[in-house]
Amino acid sequence: MKCPYCNYDESKVTDSRNCLEGAAIRRRRECLKCQKRFTTFETIDLTTQVKKRDGSYEEFQIDKLIRGLDAACRHTRISHDRVRALAAEIMAEVQERQEREITTLAIGELAMEKLKKLDTVAYIRFACVYRRFKDKDEIIHAMDGATQVRGE
Q1: CA nearest 3: which of 11, 28, 27, 25?
Q2: At 127, is the secondary structure helix, strand, or coil?
Q3: Alpha carbon distance 77, 92 (integer Å)
Q4: Is the pTM of this model over 0.70?
């Protein structure tokens, strides 16, 4: 691992901790040349390809999922830490499938399933983007389904 300060190739690990619900390892390192410390993250290499609506493919990116969940959960009772944990749960479920590809719609369905149990507003916001509702009746139908799941 190259030092971000002096570009020296060797460093030693001074501390390691699990993060993102065990899906990553945070490491504190110290450069053997300049003795400055820096943090690195080691994550699982997810080789699943995501098939987008336009037919193109890209690698699964948990940061994109976190951004989408964050947008849906903004101004709700769901914290950013909970959003990151949700994203890690979804990523784990995608990995458990052991499929070479998954669609963005399937990832969206996993996210909506989890959000529906947590917060109706976050669920509806997320569903509006992934299901591309065309009118208010579709939104009302989705809201009715969400409140029945949560028992409201």
Answers
A1: 11
A2: helix
A3: 24
A4: no
